[in-house]
Amino acid sequence: MNSQISEHIQFILNQLAPFKCKLIAVTKTRSIAELQATYTAGILDFGENRVQEMVDKQPQLPADIRWHQIGHLQTNKVKYIAPFVHLIHSVDSFKLLKEINKEALKNNRTIPCLLQMYIAQEETKFGLDKQELEELLNNPELSSLKNIQIVGLMGMASFTENTAQIKTEFQSLKNIFEEVKTQKKGEKAGNVDWQEISMGMSGDYLLAAQEGSTMVRVGSKIYGAR
Ligand SMILES: *Cc1c(COP(=O)(O)O)cnc(C)c1O
Q1: Where is the Alanine racemase N-terminal domain (predicted)?
Q2: I want to staple 152 with a disulfide (CB 3.0 to 4.6 A). Which of 107, 133, 189, 196 is the partner?
């Protein structure tokens, strides 16, 4: 098992080598032994989508692991991950941002966040559209949130085999990113710094890297089907 995990990780890292793109191992549903093997293979960035699972696993593993919250986050769960979470990829409302700020302050730290954009064709509940992004960045209260930092955008492409469509969706996220970065949107609030685009999963991470992703979130390609 361990040698397979390590081989899969090496394979992916080799593919990503030409790009400035970080591999986040999506460890949801995987055992502590599998996470340990991932750490031994040299990966320090772990992505979980459920708060309870992240909170259970974190104390059982080395302290230098960087925990990424990649799944939808309810405001009432923020407090559990606020002491240690490295990056929250799935911020999709100002209310959630305020809650993260509040809990970060209690822990005397700043929590980096990505704003999740809705880029897929299909019906999903989560993510901001462009207008909602503008509204969030123009919220006059944003500058008062001293304990969060918005560092980029996240998106999930449609669940489809249609590569052309996935590519179009990645390009739309990249375009929005370039626009906010060029126009320095939100930056006068003092807690916005456009650096990261989190896009790409097991089926499409290479395409995502080619289209400008800086972080791919890969699970089943490392560990097998869930
Ligand atoms: C599960 C998950 C992934 C990884 O999915 P795989 O297809 O296993 O690579 C990436 N991003 C999010 C938000 C997820 O929930």
Answers
A1: 4-225
A2: 196
Cα 70 to middle of ligand 1, angstroms:
8
Tokens of 130: 């462009």
Q: Which helix (H) or strand (E) holds 131?
A: helix 130-138
Helix orientation angle between 2-16 and 32-40, rounded to the nearest 10 degrees: 50
Pocket of ligand 1 contains residue 201 by CB under 6 Å:
yes
φ, ψ for residue 119, nearest 5 deg: -120, -15
Return d(Cα 69, Cα 89) in angstroms, integer.
Answer: 6
Q: pTM above the 0.90 mark?
A: yes
Q: Which of 27, 46, 48, 70 has most ligand 1 atoms within 8 Å of CB, for mutation? A: 70
27 CA to centre of ligand 1 in angstroms: 9
- Between β-strands 66-69 and 192-198, what pairing exists: parallel, antiparallel or unpaired? unpaired
Average pLDDT (161-169) is: 96
Report the alpha-carbon distance of residue 168 to residue 177 in Å, rounded.
Answer: 14
Taking the alpha carbons at both ends of the chain, their separation in whole angstroms is 15
Residues pairing with 87 in the sheet = 68
10-64 residue pLDDT tens:
999 999 999 999 999 999 999 999 999 999 999 999 999 999 999 999 999 999 9
